[in-house]
Design goal:
The chain is 38% helix and 19% strand. It contains five helices and nine strands. Strands 1-4-3-6-7-9 form a six-stranded antiparallel sheet, with no helix packed on it. Strands 5-2-8 form a three-stranded mixed sheet, with no helix packed on it. The longest helix has 27 residues.
Length: 321
């Protein structure tokens, strides 16, 4: 009896031990399954806000001055190349390069943020650069002419002078407009605006009073004293054609001069104008041509006042000579 009781007790203990193990297993979290508490939160439907870009930093006045100085340093070689051009083709090439450089530097200036004190001035600076091309076109309208005001071929040195001066004037206007916009605290122009070119000799050129610069054939006994009451003139005496003179003499305004050694009877022609071309013996601007309506006897000494002719002698306009 005692032996069987012991066996029964042992079975009971084993059974209970098994029950206890299952209960513990149910209470512990599973290593293979998932639970509600371990799931990630659902994604939000709202889009993320973009990171704001930093505001551009305004330049200080010294930094702005440095930017404008750099622009001048970039443009200066192009300006010098144009001013040193010796042919029309070289001038045109240099003009195009300068125009492109001005546009490029304007683009770079538009990217900077000016000092607070120059916020309203900076757009005017850009406008000055924008106006450059139009100003050049206006200034070059005269330089494009190949004839003088008297219809003569314009000399190369005159054409280059007018062309270079036109671009220089337009560039100087650009610099002056920039300087006016930014005021006295910042400077622009002194580094890159070229000096004025010396004028060709023909500009404002005049002959010497009484200079006889043409003479043909043998000399005679006739003489002609001319008193000039108008602008500078050239007096031509000829037997028939003013293009084939016996002699030609320059008489300045409000001066008198005497032409001697005239041979035979002659006509008197004269022409007036400005910008005397001493190399080719001709006026190049403001030309007018006239003829004395009286054939003069070469055996006498005559006195003539121009443009008020003495006595009842008249004058008439004539073709260029």
């Amino acid at each position: 009896m005692r032996r069987s009781l012991a066996v029964a007790v042992g079975v009971t203990v084993l059974a209970c031990a098994g029950c206890s193990s299952k209960a513990d297993s149910a209470d512990a979290p599973s290593t293979t399954g998932t639970t509600t508490s371990s799931k990630a939160p659902p994604p939000s439907s709202a889009a993320p806000k973009p990171t704001p870009k930093p505001s551009p930093v305004a330049l200080s006045v010294p930094m702005y001055q440095r930017a404008l100085t750099n622009v001048e340093k970039v443009l200066k070689p192009s300006v010098a190349r144009l001013m040193n051009a010796r042919t029309i083709a070289a001038f045109d090439a240099a003009r195009g390069q300068l125009a492109a450089a001005v546009v490029l530097e304007r683009t770079e200036l538009a990217k900077i943020t000016p000092p607070r004190g120059l916020v309203s001035a900076h757009p005017a600076v850009l406008d000055a650069f924008d106006a450059y091309a139009g100003n050049v076109s206006t200034e070059l309208s005269k330089a494009g002419e190949t004839k003088t005001g008297c219809g003569l071929p314009k000399a190369l040195d005159v054409r280059l002078y007018e062309a270079k001066s036109g671009v220089r004037f337009a560039y100087a206007e650009l610099a002056q407009s920039v300087q006016k916009s930014i005021g006295k605290g910042v400077k622009f122009g002194a580094l890159s605006v070229p000096a004025k070119l010396p004028q060709p000799a023909v500009f404002g050129g005049r002959g010497e009073n009484g200079d006889v610069f043409q003479r043909s054939g043998s000399r005679g006994s006739g003489s002609l004293r001319v008193t000039n009451a108008g602008s500078d003139i050239v007096v031509v005496v000829t037997a028939s054609n003013p293009r084939k003179p016996i002699a030609s003499m320059y008489v300045r305004a409000n001066k008198s001069a005497t032409l001697t050694g005239i041979r035979g009877d002659y006509w008197v022609y004269y022409k007036s104008g400005s910008n005397w071309d001493a190399k080719n013996n001709r006026f190049t601007e403001n030309c007018s041509y006239a003829k004395l309506d009286r054939f003069l006897d070469g055996s006498f000494t005559w006195s003539l006042t121009l443009k008020s002719v003495a006595g009842n002698t008249t004058e008439s306009e004539t073709e260029a000579f």
